[in-house]
Amino acid sequence: QVQLVESGGGLVQAGGSLRLSCAASGSPYSFNAMGWYRQTPGKQRELVATITSGGTTTFADSVKGRFTISRDNAKNTVYLQMNSLKPEDTAVYYCNADFPTYSSGLYYRSWDYWGQGTQVTVSS
Q1: In the 8-state DSSP scheme, what is residue 43?
Q2: In what order do the strands lie in the sheet with 77-82?
Q3: Mind listing the pLDDT tens digit for each residue in 22-39?
Q4: How far apart are the first and last CA of the chain?
Q5: Contact indicator for 79, 89 with CB cutoff of 8 Å
């Protein structure tokens, strides 16, 4: 069973920076993709940024130019560097990971996992 451990959330003033980390454990394989989503009360969870094991990235339009995402494949860890934070970035941030599984040496399917969430609060 894959477990995701998030760290790095907290309180920061507008214009400040935070770095989130998410470390995955429990899989003998490297991830297909990992990323971050966020959610505020009464709203659906939304994509923030994702990265594949090959390094392809995707960003929400609202964070482009301010957030970067990087990964350490060997450690199955992903990082979200958040700069120029705005009050509207306030949310619970969730790590997501997609891992493959194999049967008799052949690809079987992928599984989706979520972290417990970490609060990011940006004060104005």
Answers
A1: S
A2: 3-7, 18-25, 77-82, 67-72
A3: 999 988 888 899 999 999
A4: 40
A5: no
